[in-house]
Specification:
11 helices; 6 strands; alpha+beta; Potassium Channel Kv1.1, Chain A; 3-stranded antiparallel β-sheet
């Protein structure tokens, strides 16, 4: 008997029944825990006397089968089974999806489907401002709630903002905070200001103030200084508060 990894602590009762011609059936049972071995011995001098052999395996555990909706919905997305809408990105990549999932997860998608945003007779929605990689990760999140790749946090935040995916926004914001570094923090500050995210903006300014000498030598800071004087002034004002 082969057991799954999940069954390693489960108890089983194995029952062997041998029916012999013209004789009373012989029954033997043994209990096995997980991958432990076990032997059932039955004396039978003449194999031609055996009419039938039955083996019954019963689980003695009260543990219910594990529910894994994340895995199941990931399979639905990957298989494209029963899909009823096609999302097309700006580069022409197509993704099959399910309107009931998108509607349940996003009020924006729900409104789009209610108001007949689908292209006539094709059940397609073209999203010009999203590339294939971002669409793939957004759909993975919508179907499974799985953690996002940190390197995709910024574009996924933009997508989450567009489709009112508040939990995804929070995940992306946290990823941007946790991966903040000297080389890119000025870009993060600009991104936070663009999207009106005050928490992320404050975190970025605080990081810059603490690392002001190294940050101001980076290309991202030099670009910020040339393109957004107000943000630079916000940082310098915070530096002044800290040092005077």
């Amino acid at each position: 008997m082969c057991l799954r990894e999940d069954d390693k602590d489960t108890s089983f009762r194995v029952t062997l029944t041998i029916e012999k011609f013209g004789c009373k059936a012989i029954t033997r049972s043994i209990e096995i825990v997980g991958n432990e071995g076990g032997t059932i011995s039955v004396n039978c001098n003449n194999l031609s006397e055996i009419q039938d052999i039955y083996i019954k395996i019963e689980s003695l555990s009260n543990k219910s089968p594990e529910c894994n909706m994340t895995h199941d919905f990931a399979k639905i997305l990957a298989s494209e089974e029963s899909s009823d809408v096609t999302l097309v990105t700006g580069d022409g990549t197509e993704f099959k999806a399910h309107t009931f999932v998108l509607s349940a997860r996003s009020v924006v998608f729900a409104a789009m489907f209610r108001n007949d945003f689908l292209e006539r007779n094709t059940s397609r929605i073209t999203i010009e401002d999203m590339d294939a990689e971002v669409m793939k990760e957004m759909l993975n999140y919508l179907y499974t709630d799985r953690k996002i790749p940190n390197q995709m946090a910024a574009p996924l935040y933009t997508a989450a903002n567009k489709y009112a995916l508040l939990h995804l926004q929070d995940m992306c914001e946290q990823a941007l905070i946790e991966t903040m570094d000297v080389a890119s923090v000025a870009d993060t500050l600009r991104f936070a200001d663009l999207h009106g995210n005050e928490r992320l903006k404050t975190k970025a300014i605080t990081f810059i103030v603490r690392n002001i000498k190294t940050v101001t030598d980076t290309e991202s800071w030099k670009n910020l200084r040339q393109t957004d004087h107000q943000l630079c002034m916000d940082v310098l004002e915070e530096v002044a508060k800290q040092h005077f």
